[in-house]
Specification:
Elements: H1 12-27, E1 40-45, H2 51-62, E2 66-70, H3 84-91, E3 97-102, H4 107-114, E4 119-124, H5 130-144, E5 150-155, H6 162-171, E6 177-182, H7 191-199, E7 204-208, E8 220-223, H8 234-240, H9 248-251, E9 259-261, H10 282-301
Parallel strand pairs: 1-2, 1-3, 3-4, 5-6, 5-8, 6-7, 8-9
Helix pairs in contact: 1-5, 1-10, 2-10, 3-4, 5-6, 5-10
Length: 308
Amino acid sequence: MRHLISPLDFSVEELDKLLSLAKDISENPKKYSKCCEGKKLATLFYEPSTRTRLSFEAAMLNLGGSVLGFSSADSSSAAKGESVSDTIRVISCYADICAMRHPKEGAPMVAASKSGIPVINAGDGGHQHPTQTLTDLLTIKALKGKLGNMTIGLCGDLKFGRTVHSLIHSLVRYENIKFVLISPKELRVPDYIKEDVLDEHGVEYKEVENLEDVMGELDILYMTRVQRERFFNEDDYIRMKDFYILDTAKMQLAKDDMLVLHPLPRVNEISVDVDDDPRAAYFKQAQYGVYVRMALIMTLLEVSLDEQ
């Protein structure tokens, strides 16, 4: 039995196989519509979510399976003080696979250690968000045709942004990746990621505060929102939230084939005027998220078209 807690839980070869399956699902969705008949996905969301939770549910339903779960800690026995370990032991009696989002770093790992079913980390605090990373990789590979030899700009909240941390961990395994880390000083990538991941892998990167200065260098611009829920001080959040806003003027500085990604939801960090730009890929990205989660569910449940 396998779990997905970190994007590094799959080797590059396994990732390539997963992304190839997701691509085939995107091109032939009906072919996979009964792969998980009789299987149940439990969505244990201790923290609010729209896209991640619904995309997991859509993925399982598209595979012919069914879904059960909760969408907030208040609507679960966690409100009564039940531990994650006890919850997953019980859920293992009801479902075949589980997707968990939790505000505390490491909670899905604890669940996996006690679980009788595969556990998927759907986001744990400011730590990791591996299925968003799979979505990002599929989007880049589908639209760029490759995952190496690119300059990736990461912009916004790079300190608390778990999607950014997971993406860095994954992309350093591909050839000739360069990062441009665009953020205010208060929201820079944590030192442990720079030292243990970027420096350790010999990956070229630079830290800048001005987005306009580097727009022309980028093959991918990955925008993130400044997350109110990660701040202890409301004044700090208000001061930071409008630091970067991508608009049509800034897009004019970019390459003709640059792609703009965003894990969503956005607040105001991307102007709605950018939505009509053919380089805006964030809504396609949301669709790819369903396909990659379908591929992940099939992989962890070890089901295939042959069994169907």
